[in-house]
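Two entries, shown back to back:
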Amino acid sequence: MACMITTAEEYGFSARGGVNWSTYVAVRPVYPPSFFKRIYAYHGAKPQAAWSQAHDVGAGAGIVSAELAGKFDRVVMSDPNDGYAALGHKILVDELGIPAAKVVFLQEGAEKSSVAPGSVDVVTACMMIHWTDTSAAVDEFHRQLKAGGTVVITYYSRLRSEPSVPSSARTRRRLVRLARFTTGG
Protein backbone atom coordinates (compact mmCIF):
# COMPACT_ATOMS: atom_id res chain seq x y z
CA MET A 1 0.00 0.00 0.00
CA ALA A 2 1.34 3.43 -0.90
CA CYS A 3 1.71 6.28 1.55
CA MET A 4 -1.55 8.19 1.61
CA ILE A 5 -1.66 11.82 2.70
CA THR A 6 -5.02 13.54 2.71
CA THR A 7 -5.93 17.12 3.44
CA ALA A 8 -8.52 18.62 5.74
CA GLU A 9 -9.30 21.80 7.58
CA GLU A 10 -6.44 23.31 9.61
CA TYR A 11 -7.12 23.38 13.35
CA GLY A 12 -4.45 25.40 15.10
CA PHE A 13 -1.18 23.53 15.58
CA SER A 14 0.25 24.05 12.15
CA ALA A 15 3.51 22.19 11.60
CA ARG A 16 4.11 24.52 8.68
CA GLY A 17 3.24 27.49 10.86
CA GLY A 18 6.02 26.99 13.37
CA VAL A 19 5.25 24.15 15.78
CA ASN A 20 8.65 22.83 16.85
CA TRP A 21 8.24 19.09 17.46
CA SER A 22 11.80 18.63 18.70
CA THR A 23 11.03 20.94 21.63
CA TYR A 24 7.69 19.22 22.26
CA VAL A 25 9.19 15.73 22.22
CA ALA A 26 12.02 16.85 24.52
CA VAL A 27 9.64 17.97 27.30
CA ARG A 28 6.70 15.58 26.85
CA PRO A 29 6.52 12.62 29.24
CA VAL A 30 7.62 9.41 27.56
CA TYR A 31 5.35 6.37 27.36
CA PRO A 32 7.36 3.62 29.06
CA PRO A 33 7.48 0.10 27.59
CA SER A 34 5.06 -0.98 30.36
CA PHE A 35 2.41 1.33 28.85
CA PHE A 36 2.41 -0.57 25.56
CA LYS A 37 2.88 -3.94 27.27
CA ARG A 38 -0.31 -3.32 29.24
CA ILE A 39 -2.26 -2.34 26.11
CA TYR A 40 -1.02 -5.38 24.21
CA ALA A 41 -1.73 -7.75 27.12
CA TYR A 42 -5.26 -6.40 27.55
CA HIS A 43 -6.03 -6.56 23.84
CA GLY A 44 -4.34 -9.92 23.34
CA ALA A 45 -6.35 -11.54 26.14
CA LYS A 46 -9.56 -11.16 24.13
CA PRO A 47 -10.59 -14.31 22.23
CA GLN A 48 -11.09 -12.38 18.99
CA ALA A 49 -7.93 -10.27 19.31
CA ALA A 50 -6.27 -9.43 15.99
CA TRP A 51 -3.23 -7.37 15.14
CA SER A 52 -4.17 -6.22 11.64
CA GLN A 53 -4.76 -2.49 12.04
CA ALA A 54 -4.31 0.17 14.70
CA HIS A 55 -5.48 3.77 14.41
CA ASP A 56 -3.48 6.40 16.30
CA VAL A 57 -5.90 9.34 16.47
CA GLY A 58 -4.51 12.83 17.11
CA ALA A 59 -1.09 11.34 16.49
CA GLY A 60 0.89 14.56 16.15
CA ALA A 61 4.40 13.59 15.09
CA GLY A 62 3.74 9.86 15.53
CA ILE A 63 5.14 9.09 18.98
CA VAL A 64 2.61 6.31 19.59
CA SER A 65 2.32 5.33 15.92
CA ALA A 66 6.01 4.41 15.83
CA GLU A 67 5.52 1.88 18.63
CA LEU A 68 2.27 0.50 17.18
CA ALA A 69 4.03 -0.16 13.85
CA GLY A 70 6.13 -2.81 15.57
CA LYS A 71 3.04 -4.79 16.61
CA PHE A 72 0.37 -4.24 13.94
CA ASP A 73 0.37 -5.12 10.24
CA ARG A 74 -0.85 -1.62 9.44
CA VAL A 75 -1.09 1.67 11.35
CA VAL A 76 -3.31 4.59 10.49
CA MET A 77 -1.78 7.80 11.83
CA SER A 78 -4.24 10.70 11.81
CA ASP A 79 -4.16 14.27 13.04
CA PRO A 80 -6.33 17.23 12.04
CA ASN A 81 -3.50 19.72 11.98
CA ASP A 82 -1.73 21.12 8.97
CA GLY A 83 1.49 19.38 8.01
CA TYR A 84 1.48 16.53 10.53
CA ALA A 85 0.86 13.80 7.98
CA ALA A 86 3.99 14.91 6.11
CA LEU A 87 5.91 15.29 9.38
CA GLY A 88 4.80 11.82 10.51
CA HIS A 89 5.95 10.37 7.20
CA LYS A 90 9.32 12.08 7.59
CA ILE A 91 9.81 10.76 11.13
CA LEU A 92 8.35 7.25 10.80
CA VAL A 93 9.41 6.36 7.26
CA ASP A 94 12.43 8.51 6.47
CA GLU A 95 14.05 8.62 9.93
CA LEU A 96 12.88 5.43 11.67
CA GLY A 97 12.78 3.25 8.55
CA ILE A 98 9.23 1.97 8.99
CA PRO A 99 8.06 0.74 5.56
CA ALA A 100 5.79 3.32 3.90
CA ALA A 101 3.39 0.54 2.94
CA LYS A 102 2.76 -0.16 6.63
CA VAL A 103 1.51 3.33 7.58
CA VAL A 104 -1.37 5.41 6.26
CA PHE A 105 -1.13 9.12 7.02
CA LEU A 106 -4.41 11.07 7.23
CA GLN A 107 -5.09 14.71 7.98
CA GLU A 108 -8.48 14.50 9.66
CA GLY A 109 -10.13 14.95 13.04
CA ALA A 110 -11.20 12.37 15.59
CA GLU A 111 -14.90 13.08 15.16
CA LYS A 112 -15.17 11.97 11.52
CA SER A 113 -12.67 9.67 9.88
CA SER A 114 -12.34 8.10 6.46
CA VAL A 115 -11.25 4.82 8.10
CA ALA A 116 -13.62 1.99 7.14
CA PRO A 117 -16.22 0.86 9.66
CA GLY A 118 -15.30 -2.23 11.67
CA SER A 119 -11.74 -2.28 10.36
CA VAL A 120 -9.63 -1.34 13.40
CA ASP A 121 -8.35 -3.64 16.14
CA VAL A 122 -7.01 -0.91 18.45
CA VAL A 123 -7.74 2.82 18.53
CA THR A 124 -5.33 4.99 20.51
CA ALA A 125 -6.23 8.53 21.52
CA CYS A 126 -3.24 9.68 23.53
CA MET A 127 -3.26 13.17 24.98
CA MET A 128 -5.76 14.50 22.47
CA ILE A 129 -9.29 13.83 23.68
CA HIS A 130 -9.58 17.30 25.28
CA TRP A 131 -9.25 18.88 21.82
CA THR A 132 -12.31 17.02 20.49
CA ASP A 133 -16.05 16.92 20.69
CA THR A 134 -15.70 13.96 23.05
CA SER A 135 -19.09 12.37 22.37
CA ALA A 136 -18.60 12.55 18.60
CA ALA A 137 -15.05 11.16 18.90
CA VAL A 138 -16.19 8.23 21.05
CA ASP A 139 -18.95 7.43 18.56
CA GLU A 140 -16.38 7.53 15.75
CA PHE A 141 -14.02 5.18 17.62
CA HIS A 142 -16.95 2.78 18.05
CA ARG A 143 -17.74 2.95 14.33
CA GLN A 144 -14.17 2.06 13.36
CA LEU A 145 -13.62 -0.79 15.83
CA LYS A 146 -13.98 -4.45 15.06
CA ALA A 147 -16.10 -6.34 17.60
CA GLY A 148 -13.90 -6.92 20.63
CA GLY A 149 -11.51 -4.16 19.63
CA THR A 150 -9.70 -1.99 22.16
CA VAL A 151 -9.82 1.76 22.73
CA VAL A 152 -6.98 3.47 24.59
CA ILE A 153 -7.56 7.01 25.83
CA THR A 154 -4.81 8.69 27.84
CA TYR A 155 -4.93 11.97 29.67
CA TYR A 156 -2.47 13.42 32.17
CA SER A 157 -5.00 14.64 34.72
CA ARG A 158 -8.44 13.73 35.96
CA LEU A 159 -11.15 14.38 33.37
CA ARG A 160 -13.46 16.16 35.78
CA SER A 161 -10.81 18.80 36.48
CA GLU A 162 -10.55 19.73 32.80
CA PRO A 163 -13.40 22.05 31.78
CA SER A 164 -12.90 21.41 28.05
CA VAL A 165 -13.71 17.70 28.44
CA PRO A 166 -17.46 17.35 28.85
CA SER A 167 -18.40 15.18 31.80
CA SER A 168 -22.00 15.02 30.71
CA ALA A 169 -24.21 12.04 31.32
CA ARG A 170 -24.43 11.62 27.53
CA THR A 171 -20.65 11.29 27.18
CA ARG A 172 -20.46 8.88 30.12
CA ARG A 173 -23.21 6.70 28.57
CA ARG A 174 -21.32 6.61 25.28
CA LEU A 175 -18.08 5.64 27.02
CA VAL A 176 -19.90 2.86 28.89
CA ARG A 177 -21.49 1.63 25.64
CA LEU A 178 -18.08 1.66 23.96
CA ALA A 179 -16.57 -0.24 26.91
CA ARG A 180 -19.28 -2.88 26.66
CA PHE A 181 -18.71 -3.19 22.91
CA THR A 182 -14.95 -3.62 23.27
CA THR A 183 -15.26 -6.20 26.05
CA GLY A 184 -18.13 -8.11 24.49
CA GLY A 185 -20.36 -7.36 27.53
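entry 2 starts here
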Amino acid sequence: MDQSVIHTLKTNYKRELIQKMVDGDTPNVISFLKEMTIRDAVNIIHSAWAAISKVSLRKCWEKGLPMPDSSLSDDEGEKSDFWGSTDKDIQDSARQKIADFLEVDEREVDHHLKMWVDEDANLPTAQEKTDEDTSQEALARGEPTPSEEQKQEEPPSSAPSTQQALKNLQVVLDFWTSQGKNLEAIQVETQMRKVREIQAKQQKQTELASSS
Protein backbone atom coordinates (compact mmCIF):
# COMPACT_ATOMS: atom_id res chain seq x y z
CA MET A 1 0.00 0.00 0.00
CA ASP A 2 2.74 2.44 1.02
CA GLN A 3 4.83 1.67 -2.06
CA SER A 4 2.08 1.97 -4.65
CA VAL A 5 -1.21 3.71 -3.86
CA ILE A 6 0.18 6.22 -1.34
CA HIS A 7 3.12 6.98 -3.63
CA THR A 8 0.73 7.50 -6.54
CA LEU A 9 -1.50 9.72 -4.38
CA LYS A 10 1.46 11.92 -3.40
CA THR A 11 2.58 12.18 -7.03
CA ASN A 12 -0.92 13.12 -8.17
CA TYR A 13 -1.18 15.67 -5.33
CA LYS A 14 2.06 17.38 -6.37
CA ARG A 15 0.91 17.50 -9.99
CA GLU A 16 -2.49 18.96 -9.04
CA LEU A 17 -0.80 21.49 -6.72
CA ILE A 18 1.61 22.69 -9.40
CA GLN A 19 -1.20 22.87 -11.96
CA LYS A 20 -3.28 24.98 -9.57
CA MET A 21 -0.33 27.30 -9.00
CA VAL A 22 0.30 27.67 -12.75
CA ASP A 23 -3.37 28.38 -13.45
CA GLY A 24 -3.57 30.98 -10.67
CA ASP A 25 -2.57 34.62 -10.77
CA THR A 26 -0.22 34.70 -7.76
CA PRO A 27 3.18 36.34 -8.47
CA ASN A 28 5.34 33.64 -6.86
CA VAL A 29 5.33 30.29 -5.04
CA ILE A 30 5.46 31.80 -1.53
CA SER A 31 2.42 33.98 -2.18
CA PHE A 32 0.56 30.99 -3.61
CA LEU A 33 1.28 28.80 -0.56
CA LYS A 34 0.28 31.60 1.83
CA GLU A 35 -3.09 31.87 0.11
CA MET A 36 -3.69 28.09 0.27
CA THR A 37 -6.44 26.98 2.67
CA ILE A 38 -7.32 23.63 4.22
CA ARG A 39 -10.31 23.47 1.89
CA ASP A 40 -7.99 23.88 -1.11
CA ALA A 41 -5.74 21.08 0.16
CA VAL A 42 -8.72 18.75 0.70
CA ASN A 43 -10.00 19.46 -2.82
CA ILE A 44 -6.57 18.70 -4.28
CA ILE A 45 -6.38 15.43 -2.30
CA HIS A 46 -9.85 14.50 -3.60
CA SER A 47 -8.73 15.09 -7.19
CA ALA A 48 -5.47 13.22 -6.62
CA TRP A 49 -7.30 10.19 -5.20
CA ALA A 50 -9.85 10.20 -8.02
CA ALA A 51 -6.98 10.08 -10.51
CA ILE A 52 -5.69 6.73 -9.16
CA SER A 53 -6.58 4.01 -11.62
CA LYS A 54 -8.43 0.81 -10.76
CA VAL A 55 -5.41 -1.14 -11.99
CA SER A 56 -3.19 0.49 -9.35
CA LEU A 57 -5.69 -0.33 -6.60
CA ARG A 58 -5.97 -3.93 -7.73
CA LYS A 59 -2.20 -4.41 -7.88
CA CYS A 60 -1.91 -2.95 -4.38
CA TRP A 61 -4.31 -5.51 -2.90
CA GLU A 62 -2.83 -8.40 -4.87
CA LYS A 63 0.48 -7.94 -3.05
CA GLY A 64 -1.04 -8.92 0.30
CA LEU A 65 -4.24 -10.69 -0.76
CA PRO A 66 -3.94 -12.48 -4.13
CA MET A 67 -7.17 -12.29 -6.08
CA PRO A 68 -8.56 -14.90 -8.46
CA ASP A 69 -8.64 -14.40 -12.20
CA SER A 70 -10.65 -11.32 -13.15
CA SER A 71 -12.43 -13.33 -15.81
CA LEU A 72 -15.02 -14.25 -13.13
CA SER A 73 -18.25 -12.39 -13.91
CA ASP A 74 -21.73 -11.94 -12.56
CA ASP A 75 -22.76 -15.13 -14.37
CA GLU A 76 -21.50 -17.05 -11.36
CA GLY A 77 -24.57 -15.85 -9.47
CA GLU A 78 -22.69 -13.50 -7.12
CA LYS A 79 -22.10 -9.79 -7.39
CA SER A 80 -18.46 -9.05 -8.30
CA ASP A 81 -16.46 -5.93 -7.59
CA PHE A 82 -14.65 -3.73 -10.10
CA TRP A 83 -11.77 -6.22 -10.57
CA GLY A 84 -14.05 -9.23 -11.00
CA SER A 85 -13.73 -10.85 -7.54
CA THR A 86 -16.84 -11.73 -5.56
CA ASP A 87 -17.24 -11.25 -1.81
CA LYS A 88 -16.90 -15.01 -1.36
CA ASP A 89 -13.61 -15.03 -3.29
CA ILE A 90 -12.19 -12.34 -1.02
CA GLN A 91 -13.45 -14.06 2.15
CA ASP A 92 -12.04 -17.44 1.07
CA SER A 93 -8.68 -15.90 0.19
CA ALA A 94 -8.53 -14.04 3.52
CA ARG A 95 -9.55 -17.15 5.45
CA GLN A 96 -6.78 -19.13 3.78
CA LYS A 97 -4.22 -16.43 4.60
CA ILE A 98 -5.25 -16.44 8.28
CA ALA A 99 -5.13 -20.23 8.43
CA ASP A 100 -1.63 -20.26 6.95
CA PHE A 101 -0.48 -17.56 9.37
CA LEU A 102 -1.85 -19.42 12.42
CA GLU A 103 -0.77 -22.79 11.05
CA VAL A 104 -4.21 -24.23 11.72
CA ASP A 105 -6.88 -25.93 9.67
CA GLU A 106 -9.09 -23.52 7.73
CA ARG A 107 -12.13 -24.83 9.64
CA GLU A 108 -10.64 -23.51 12.90
CA VAL A 109 -10.29 -19.92 11.66
CA ASP A 110 -13.77 -18.86 12.84
CA HIS A 111 -12.98 -20.10 16.36
CA HIS A 112 -9.74 -18.08 16.51
CA LEU A 113 -11.40 -14.98 15.09
CA LYS A 114 -14.10 -15.18 17.77
CA MET A 115 -11.42 -15.50 20.45
CA TRP A 116 -9.72 -12.34 19.14
CA VAL A 117 -12.97 -10.41 19.02
CA ASP A 118 -14.02 -11.45 22.54
CA GLU A 119 -10.54 -11.03 24.07
CA ASP A 120 -11.28 -7.61 25.56
CA ALA A 121 -15.03 -8.04 26.02
CA ASN A 122 -14.85 -8.15 29.83
CA LEU A 123 -12.23 -5.45 30.31
CA PRO A 124 -13.45 -2.24 31.98
CA THR A 125 -13.77 0.80 29.78
CA ALA A 126 -13.18 4.44 30.69
CA GLN A 127 -14.09 5.31 34.27
CA GLU A 128 -14.29 8.69 35.95
CA LYS A 129 -12.03 9.22 38.94
CA THR A 130 -13.57 10.24 42.23
CA ASP A 131 -12.02 12.74 44.64
CA GLU A 132 -11.06 9.81 46.85
CA ASP A 133 -9.17 8.14 43.97
CA THR A 134 -7.31 11.38 43.22
CA SER A 135 -6.40 11.84 46.89
CA GLN A 136 -5.11 8.28 47.19
CA GLU A 137 -2.96 8.65 44.07
CA ALA A 138 -1.57 11.95 45.35
CA LEU A 139 -0.69 10.40 48.72
CA ALA A 140 1.04 7.49 46.96
CA ARG A 141 3.22 9.96 45.02
CA GLY A 142 3.85 12.12 48.07
CA GLU A 143 1.95 15.06 46.61
CA PRO A 144 -0.56 17.24 48.46
CA THR A 145 -4.19 16.17 48.12
CA PRO A 146 -6.80 18.58 46.67
CA SER A 147 -8.00 19.49 50.17
CA GLU A 148 -4.45 20.23 51.30
CA GLU A 149 -3.86 22.37 48.21
CA GLN A 150 -6.90 24.45 49.10
CA LYS A 151 -5.57 24.97 52.62
CA GLN A 152 -2.20 26.03 51.23
CA GLU A 153 -3.72 28.61 48.92
CA GLU A 154 -3.11 32.13 50.11
CA PRO A 155 -5.90 34.68 50.05
CA PRO A 156 -5.70 36.94 47.01
CA SER A 157 -3.65 40.04 47.67
CA SER A 158 -4.44 43.51 46.40
CA ALA A 159 -2.89 44.71 43.16
CA PRO A 160 0.62 46.20 43.56
CA SER A 161 0.86 49.97 43.44
CA THR A 162 2.58 51.90 40.68
CA GLN A 163 5.37 52.75 43.12
CA GLN A 164 5.98 49.04 43.80
CA ALA A 165 5.91 48.27 40.07
CA LEU A 166 8.47 50.98 39.35
CA LYS A 167 10.71 49.74 42.15
CA ASN A 168 10.67 46.17 40.86
CA LEU A 169 11.14 47.26 37.25
CA GLN A 170 14.17 49.29 38.31
CA VAL A 171 15.70 46.11 39.73
CA VAL A 172 15.06 44.30 36.45
CA LEU A 173 16.52 47.22 34.49
CA ASP A 174 19.68 47.18 36.59
CA PHE A 175 20.02 43.44 36.02
CA TRP A 176 19.73 43.60 32.21
CA THR A 177 22.08 46.60 32.13
CA SER A 178 24.69 44.69 34.13
CA GLN A 179 24.37 41.78 31.70
CA GLY A 180 24.87 44.02 28.69
CA LYS A 181 21.42 43.21 27.33
CA ASN A 182 20.54 46.52 25.76
CA LEU A 183 17.39 45.32 23.97
CA GLU A 184 15.91 43.87 27.15
CA ALA A 185 16.85 47.03 29.06
CA ILE A 186 15.04 49.18 26.49
CA GLN A 187 11.94 47.02 26.83
CA VAL A 188 11.97 47.45 30.61
CA GLU A 189 12.40 51.22 30.23
CA THR A 190 9.34 51.25 27.96
CA GLN A 191 7.35 49.42 30.64
CA MET A 192 8.54 51.87 33.30
CA ARG A 193 7.43 54.79 31.12
CA LYS A 194 3.95 53.27 30.82
CA VAL A 195 3.77 52.75 34.59
CA ARG A 196 4.74 56.40 35.16
CA GLU A 197 1.95 57.48 32.80
CA ILE A 198 -0.53 55.46 34.84
CA GLN A 199 0.92 56.94 38.03
CA ALA A 200 0.47 60.48 36.68
CA LYS A 201 -3.15 59.79 35.73
CA GLN A 202 -3.88 58.37 39.20
CA GLN A 203 -2.35 61.42 40.87
CA LYS A 204 -4.39 63.74 38.67
CA GLN A 205 -7.59 61.85 39.49
CA THR A 206 -6.75 62.06 43.20
CA GLU A 207 -6.19 65.83 42.99
CA LEU A 208 -9.48 66.35 41.11
CA ALA A 209 -11.36 64.26 43.65
CA SER A 210 -9.86 66.17 46.61
CA SER A 211 -10.55 69.59 45.05
CA SER A 212 -14.18 68.78 44.39
